[in-house]
Design a protein that fits this description.
The structure holds 3 protein chains of 3 kinds. Chain A is of the alpha/beta class. Chain A has 10 helices and 11 strands. In chain A, the strands form 2 sheets. A 9-stranded mixed sheet of chain A has the order 3-6-7-2-8-1-9-10-11, with helices on both faces. In chain A, strands 4-5 form a two-stranded antiparallel sheet. Chain C has 2 domains: 5-59 and 123-293, Rossmann fold (3-Layer(aba) Sandwich), CATH 3.40.50.300; 68-113, Alpha-Beta Plaits (2-Layer Sandwich), CATH 3.30.70. Classes of the chains: A alpha/beta, B alpha/beta, C alpha/beta.
Chain lengths: 287, 112, 298
């Protein structure tokens, strides 16, 4: 079962909610799909047991076979190849390549071979557990897109376990993909004009999927958000209060459920509310 | 000697275009006669990344010996390098002015 | 013709106060064009109340489209596609427009030429008037790709507006993260303000986005927001900044008046109660302008 935490705007508490739930739920996996800025490990502090390079394919041109016809470049939708016949030059621009295989497919001389290029890693670890329960994707810096790694992680998640997925921020492709493959969606919002605006955008997408979903209001301290909630018939799973003391401990990397009993209970309440909306019952760890 | 330059309009009094890849249009001018040999609207304006590479290819195929540009990226440069064509940094406002500046050796060559 | 100086505000991590600072600076800096390049979640309009004067569609790259009449459901497209972008719905092969990258491989392999490429409208960009100057912004349809290209478009339009209006500066609210939209936003930038917070995730993300930014060799300055939340991390950021020769433009304390202002859709520089914070922002502005106004023409 995949519980996916999304937010629209960054900084509303996706990772906070995901890490605390993953720690509290019995036998849950934490999956960090925010491959540009993966932060879950800062809070869960897992022991990393395996690191895997994540590769995509890039073309390698054999210039002995190449006749500089330019068919590969003409067919490349991303301008990643440039063939200058007059000087027998074949140029490949790695950062434009989308790893699609078209160039190799169209080459009439069989001069293009596809080879691996590492764009990042998938790391596996464990926290509070004998078995692996932490998966994190990390995109190498200066790579344009982490979508291949996000797709790679998605393929690892089989149905049986409870996965708590920390999605990337925004409403872009990877987020929509994550929403489409979720079993339960939690929208993290903050009660500010930005939070409400971006929350509404994300809600548009979620509603389109007809999947069970609920809202967690983070940094809650006033009634501003009620207008938003009443209009949308949302299920409020829980509210996490805004307190300077919480922010200070968060800044050090502490989990909320470890800070005090009230916060722990707030997360237990979130789990209970998820259970009300969902057929599979999720258990939490007793203290 | 022919000059390839990015253009905002189709005559020599038009301003040159400060962009390379997404310039509005391209012009080839015969230096001695100041005749406009070619004027091409840029068909790649809606292209994604790497549009400079396409423009570099157009510049090479245009038959020009000299390319004058304002801001040209490293990928575009790498396409032109090795073809023997020189690239100069545009200075001036109108295309006419820029080419006059080239004639008077006022333009700096861009080598990297 | 000189181009306007480009100032970009980034953060790496979301929620550090980037947009609030950008809006505040937009209100107190003269002779500039304001840009909202956070095209996935454009929020500046909430604080600046722009009036749209021009609106244009933005087309993304072409994606595949299967002609049902010609398709024989042989499935070759699906097995060839690297992006898992072909679904079978009610027995028919259709393109998943969120996953299709537009590579054309399916079109090339299709034995009956049933696939064509079609450009989609993926967003809109706008030119607007605000009380503080012209603004260029954009919105991407949720789930669309090409945010990098839209960011490039918005920056280019801003230079055109600046030329027309004789504005000498462009202030850009940048996208979060470190991927393609951020890389696009950094191209051609003269000065980057990194807005960070002294939290473990804030520091982690700051280091990553600075590394990406340094590729483009702009000048960089850091603003530490909510600095008093964790003095240790604040010192860590200062030390890191000095090692990289990066200025600290300002330290803003954690203050309820900032959130209160935000609830009223205002920035600290608008509110009397927020004078202390407002003064700090003015100092940031002065330091920033000193750095950019003596920028030699490139």
């Amino acid at each position: 079962m995949k519980i996916t935490i999304v937010s629209g705007k960054g900084g509303t508490g996706k990772t906070t909610i995901a890490t605390n739930l993953a720690k509290l739920i019995n036998n849950a996996f934490y999956v960090d799909m925010d491959v540009e800025e993966p932060n879950g490990r800062l809070f869960l502090k897992p022991e990393i047991v395996n690191e895997e390079n994540y590769n995509v394919m890039i073309p390698e041109i054999n210039e002995d076979k190449c006749n500089y016809c330019g068919l590969c470049a003409n067919n490349c939708a991303f301008n990643a190849l440039s063939i200058i016949k007059s000087i027998n030059n074949a140029l490949f621009f790695e950062d434009l390549c989308h790893h699609c295989g078209v160039c190799s497919y169209v080459c009439p001389e069989n001069a293009i071979k596809e080879v691996d290029k590492c764009i990042g890693k998938i790391n596996y670890g464990k926290f509070d557990s004998k078995n692996i329960n932490f998966i994190e994707g990390v995109l190498n810096l200066n790579e344009a897109t982490g979508t291949p790694i996000i797709n790679g992680i998605s393929r690892l998640l089989n149905e049986e376990k409870v996965y708590v997925l920390d999605a990337p921020p925004g409403t872009n492709c990877p987020v929509v993909s994550a929403i489409n493959s979720a079993d339960f969606i939690i929208l993290a919002i903050e009660p500010t004009p930005f939070g409400v605006h971006d929350g509404e955008l994300t809600l548009e997408i979620i509603k389109g999927t007809n999947k069970p979903c609920g809202v967690v209001i983070n940094k809650y301290s006033n009634e501003n958000l009620d207008r938003f909630i009443n209009n949308n018939e949302l299920n409020i799973l829980g509210k996490i209060p805004f307190k300077r003391g919480i922010a200070e401990r968060y800044s050090k990397g502490d989990l909320l459920i470890d800070m005090n009993g009230d916060l722990r209970n707030a997360f237990i309440a979130i789990i209970k509310n998820i259970n009300k909306l969902n057929s599979r019952e999720i258990r939490w760890k007793e203290q | 000697m022919k000059i390839f330059i990015t253009a905002t309009g189709n005559d020599l009094n038009s301003k040159y275009d400060e962009r390379f890849g997404r310039a509005k249009a391209f012009m080839v001018v015969e230096l001695d006669t100041m005749q406009i040999e070619k004027y091409m609207e840029n068909e790649n304006l809606n292209a994604g990344h790497g549009v400079g590479i396409l423009t570099a290819q157009i510049a090479i195929e245009s038959g020009a010996d000299i390319i004058i540009a304002n801001r040209i990226g490293p990928k575009s440069m790498s396409v032109i390098k090795g073809t023997g064509k020189k690239i100069y940094q545009a200075e001036g406002s109108t295309i006419k002015e820029v080419i006059e500046n080239y004639k008077n050796n006022k333009l700096e060559e861009i080598t990297s | 013709m000189e181009r306007a100086v480009e100032i970009l505000i980034l953060s790496g991590k979301g929620g550090t106060g980037k947009t609030t600072l950008t809006a505040s600076l937009s209100k107190i800096i003269d002779n500039k064009v304001i840009v909202d390049a956070d095209v996935d979640a454009a929020d500046m309009y909430i604080l600046l109340s722009p009036e749209t004067v021009k609106k244009e569609n933005f087309k993304g790259s072409a994606i595949a489209f299967i002609d049902r009449e010609k398709c024989t459901n042989c499935g070759l497209c699906k097995t060839s596609c690297r992006f898992d972008a072909i679904d079978i719905v009610c027995g028919k092969h259709i393109i998943n427009e969120y996953k299709c990258e537009g590579c054309t491989l399916c079109k090339l392999v299709c034995p009956v030429s049933a696939i064509t490429m079609k450009e989609q409208i993926v967003g809109e960009w706008y030119i607007s008037n605000t009380d503080y100057g012209k603004m260029v912004s954009a919105r991407l349809i949720p789930g669309a790709e090409n945010s990098g290209n839209l960011v490039t478009m918005v920056k280019h339009q801003a230079q055109l507006v600046a030329r027309e209006n004789k504005d000498r500066k462009i202030i850009i609210d940048g996208p979060p993260g470190v991927g393609c939209p951020v890389i696009s936003s950094l191209s051609g930038i003269d000065y980057v303000i990194m807005v960070t917070e002294p939290t473990i995730s804030g520091v982690h993300d700051l280091k990553r986005v600075i590394e990406v930014a340094m590729h483009f060799k702009p000048k960089i300055g850091i603003v530490i927001n909510k600095f008093d939340l964790n003095r240790e991390h604040t010192e860590e950021i200062k030390k890191f900044a000095s090692e990289k020769n990066i200025d600290i433009l300002g330290l803003i304390p954690f203050d309820k008046c900032i959130v209160d202002a935000l609830m009223e859709k205002k920035t600290p520089v608008d509110i009397e109660d927020c004078k202390y914070i407002s003064d700090i922002i003015y100092t940031i502005k002065d330091k920033l302008l000193k750095e950019v106004e003596y920028e030699p023409e490139k």
